[in-house]
Specification:
Blueprint (H helix, E strand, L loop, with lengths): L11 E4 L4 E4 L5 E2 L1 H7 L1 H4 L3 E8 L6 E4 L18 E8 L3 E2 L6 H12 L12 H4 L3 E29 L2 E16 L3 E4 L6 H7 L8 E2 L9 E3 L9 H20 L3 E2 L5 H8 L4 E17 L2 E8 L5 E3 L5 H20 L7 H30 L11 H6 L12 H5 L7 H19 L5 H7 L6 H25 L6 H20 L4 H29 L2 E2 L14
Parallel strand pairs: 7-14, 8-12
Antiparallel strand pairs: 1-2, 2-3, 4-5, 4-6, 5-12, 7-11, 8-9, 8-10, 8-13, 8-14, 14-15, 15-16, 15-17
Helix pairs in contact: 6-7, 8-12, 9-12, 9-14, 9-15, 9-16, 12-16, 14-15, 15-16
């Protein structure tokens, strides 16, 4: 059921800036309260009529209160017309209306991209930014009930005064009763919990009763995760919040807590957990490349934004090549020459650094593919139980923000490596290129065997861990450079201790190190792009909440 203008009969949409319904044709406005009073009978129903759009490619479903032209899917980026049908959907209890406009989402996106030179060219295309779509995402809101009761607890205080240490035991009597504040988790299987973590929290001061008018001109996802998915996490958060308040009231006394969650619930008397669905606003932008997608998501209430930003390899190496060419020209004019053994030593050190970067990327991908931080995903339960959910509103865990932070920060380490790699190749081919470095490292050739001897065990450790983690993930190409790197270092040790008088052995070792460095750099960028993009989702068989008639 669409919302028709009382003046001209045209379709109305929710004007985020004015927080009112506005006609797309005659600019007539109407408050949500006015819409509610006219449609009071509809507001009392447990369901509301909506158009459900289903993506033929991934099975994702979005709803809208009236017919709208939908030419692409926000979840998989498929550019095809979505199929539509009318359904009666369960009415959410509450909603946080959009506070940030599409223009503000675009501005925040452009500001976040400033200073990032190696992003795909589409990311800065104004036409691409028009793809931002306002979507209300379903969230489960949990409340734990605590009966009115007096609870006798124990506690202790440990402190030092003067020359003495004091250990004191206390009896703590606490009056409990009421219910805990809402705890929120996203209820959409299509929306990765890690994205929800990064745009959290939503502020409940704007939470209001649901009215269909807030959806006008916007979209909403259906709740497709079972409400029981987050029950334990919600109970843990409720219990922790109660003990936290008790400790605040107790001052210097630390209250003793039982070891297990059931014991804590029994001690406090925490009872049933109520669960209801609310709608929270999110701006959504999707970029697709082959079988991977990247999301830019902004909290439609607070403006907090998170972005998947892959690296444009062509742009990256063009910048590296240009900078290396400038360095080569400058340094080649200086009257000095670096000895081949020093060249090998520097190459071995850079190889270790590049191997560490590659190892870190593999670790992050393993965490991503294990879905450790996605509570909405029901796989890998054992690993998820190792995490303790510490949630602000809407976040499954504060730990996932650092784990899943997407930026080009480590590129700052890789760019100098790329510069040096290209510069080394040029200097090997053209004598005199290491003028300045030669002055700095003159006489260091004697350290050549020692550097390679130390580098081998370090390289072996990182290679072994890289191979182990790469074997556990879907993309296993890191195994090849992880095997090559220690072999190159081992060959360097043999040449170092042979102390050959022929320079071509050392030039060959440096070239081998540099080839291994390039393989590590290319692999690290490929894995970084793999980490900052996601597989095309498939929701044809998603299970969870029943939102049918």
């Amino acid at each position: 059921m669409g919302i028709n203008c009382p003046s001209c009969g045209g379709k109305m949409y929710f004007d985020i800036g004015k927080q009112m319904l506005k006609c797309a044709y005659c600019d007539t406005t109407k408050t949500i309260e006015e819409y509610k009073s006219v449609n009071e009978a509809e507001e009392q129903k447990m369901t509301y009529d909506s158009v459900v759009y289903t993506c033929r490619n991934c099975g994702a479903e979005l709803t809208a209160p009236d017919e709208q032209a939908v030419a692409y899917c926000s979840y998989c980026g498929s550019e095809q017309m979505l199929s539509a049908k009318h359904e009666e959907l369960l009415r959410p209890k509450k909603i946080i209306p959009f506070k940030k406009t599409k223009k503000q989402a675009k501005n925040a996106y452009e500001a976040a991209l400033k200073g990032k030179l190696y992003v795909p060219k589409e990311f800065k295309d104004p036409q691409f930014l028009e793809g931002f779509r306002g979507i209300y995402l379903p969230y489960f809101s949990y409340e734990a009930h605590v009966p009115e009761k007096e609870v006798a607890l124990t506690g202790s205080a440990h402190y030092t005064s003067g020359k003495y240490d004091y250990d004191e035991d206390y009896n703590v009597n606490v009056s409990l009763g009421g219910k805990t504040q809402d705890v929120n988790f996203d209820a959409s299987a299509a929306f990765d919990d890690t994205l929800a973590n990064e745009i959290a929290p939503f502020q409940e001061k704007d939470l209001t009763e649901f009215h269909e008018g807030y959806l006008a001109g916007l979209y909403a996802d259906k709740a497709t995760t079972a409400g029981t998915t987050y029950i334990q996490a919600a109970e843990e958060l409720a219990v922790e919040s109660i003990y936290s308040e008790i400790n605040k009231a107790a001052g210097k006394v630390t209250v003793d807590e039982p070891d297990t969650l059931p014991e804590k619930k029994a001690q406090l008397g925490v009872g049933a957990i109520d669960c209801e669905v609310s709608y929270f606003p999110v701006w959504f932008l999707t970029w697709r490349h082959k079988d991977r997608v990247a999301y830019s998501v902004m909290n439609g209430q607070t403006g907090k934004i998170t972005m998947d930003i892959p690296v444009n390899k062509k742009m990256f190496f063009l910048f590296a090549l240009a900078a290396a060419a400038v360095l080569f020209i400058i340094l080649s004019l200086l009257p000095a020459f670096i000895v081949p053994k020093t060249m090998c030593s520097i190459a071995a050190i850079i190889l270790i650094i590049s191997s560490i970067l590659l190892h870190n990327e593999i670790k992050r991908i393993y965490a991503r593919e294990s879905h450790i931080y996605d509570y909405g995903d029901t796989t890998h339960t054992a690993k998820k139980k190792e995490m303790k959910a510490k949630q602000a509103s809407g976040a499954a865990s504060a730990q996932t923000t650092t784990q899943k932070k997407k930026s080009h920060g480590w590129i700052g380490w890789l760019i100098p490596i790329a510069y040096i790699v290209i510069f080394f190749f040029a200097s090997i081919l053209f004598e005199g290129g290491f003028a300045l470095i030669g002055n700095l490292f003159s006489g260091s050739g004697n350290a050549f065997p020692f550097i390679f001897a130390v580098a081998l065990p370090i390289q072996l450790v990182f290679s072994v861990f890289t191979i182990i983690n790469a074997s556990r993930i879907q993309k296993k190409t890191a195994i090849i450079p992880a095997i090559i790197a220690p072999l190159v270092i081992f060959a360097g040790i043999i040449i170092a201790f042979s102390n050959s008088p022929y320079d071509y052995w050392y030039y060959g070792t440096a070239i081998a190190c540099l080839i291994a460095i390039i393989l590590n750099c290319i692999s690290a960028i490929n894995y970084f792009n793999y980490l900052t993009t996601r597989p095309v989702p498939n929701f044809f068989r998603r299970e969870g909440a029943n939102n049918e008639k």
